Amino acid sequence: MNNHKILIVDDEVELAALLQTVLNKEGLSDIVLAHTLQDGYKKFETEQPSLILLDIMLPDGEGYDLCKKIRETSNVPIIFMSAKDDEIDKILGLAIGGDDYVTKPFSPKEVAYRVKAQLRRLGYHMETAVPKQTQVGPFLLNDSETELFKEHHSIELTAKEIGLMAVFMHHPNQIISKETLFERVWGEDFFGSDNTIMVHIRRLREKIEENPSKPSYLLTVKGLGYKLVSEG
Q1: Around Cβ 3, how many Cβ atoms within 10 Å?
Q2: Which residues are paired to 101 by β-bridges?
Q3: Which segment of 11-20, 61-70, 108-117 scores lowest on mean pLDDT?
Q4: Between β-strands 225-228 and 218-221, what pairing exists: parallel, antiparallel or unpaired?
Q5: Is the pLDDT of residue 96 over 50?
Q6: First-to-last CA distance in the chain?
Q7: pLDDT (0 to 100) of residue 129
Q8: Is residue 128 packed enough to be buried (19+ CB in 10 Å), middle (13-18) or exposed (0-12)?
Q9: Average of pLDDT values for 87-100?
Q10: If 0-12 CB within 10 Å is exposed, 13-18 middle and 19+ buried, where does residue 100 land?
Q11: Which long-range contacts (CB under 8 A, 24 or more apart) does 74-77 make?
């Protein structure tokens, strides 16, 4: 993991420094700090981090806005950090492109664990060799599992959405449980993270289905999970 660069965007200088120390102890030595929205975006562009820890409440704006701007050009994993613990805030963070959400006050070691889980998943995408393109019905996943096509048209997906499609496409017409999806795509145990799965499945359907509210391909199997069928 030493090759990964982590960008921490948080206006609490002491907390950012503490996170840097803990991440260093976990073997992540390349840490970049920013304390404002503007500086965060500037360092995102210049440093090209592997992962971003992003505070929501910043002096010059909200981390949500920075996430939206980054998502215009990059699928880099983003973990939100916030004192807001309302469920709607967590759902919003995931809906606009966040990959995880931790609530302050938190254990810095827990954040380090979540960072390493995201980096393990990132490493899986970068290092796993897939012998050929994978096709299920109208969907084609390229050999590096970084781009999805539907009837030869490219579909822009986030890293988590690509991860979900990869799991479904490697197991077509099979029911995949929420627990399995969370373990394979997020790289950690499920712990009842229903909302995380639901939000990402909804966003994925909005991109691959003609009618997301009545999906033809990515189906819910009540009480069991989801499955991708080859014929809509």
Answers
A1: 10
A2: 80
A3: 108-117
A4: antiparallel
A5: yes
A6: 41
A7: 42
A8: exposed
A9: 85
A10: buried
A11: 74/44, 75/157, 75/158, 75/159, 75/162, 76/44, 76/49, 76/50, 76/51, 76/52, 76/159, 77/50, 77/51, 77/52, 77/118, 77/119, 77/121, 77/122, 77/159
φ/ψ of 41, rounded to 5, equals: -70, -40
Tokens of residue 158, six digits? 């986030």
Domain architecture of the chain: domains with CATH: 5-127 (3.40.50.2300), 134-228 (1.10.10.10)
In tens, the pLDDT along 186-196 reads 876 656 667 88
Residue for token pair 């500037």: 42
Q: At what angle do helices 63-71 and 37-47 cross, to 10 degrees?
A: 30
- Chain centre distance of CA 75: 8
Backbone angles phi, psi at 33, to 5 degrees: -110, 140
Question: Pick from 101, 115, 120: which is nearest to 25 by CA?
Answer: 115
**pLDDT score for 95:** 87
Is pLDDT above 60 for 130?
no
The label of the residue with tokens 């009842």 reads 192
Amino acid type, 179: E
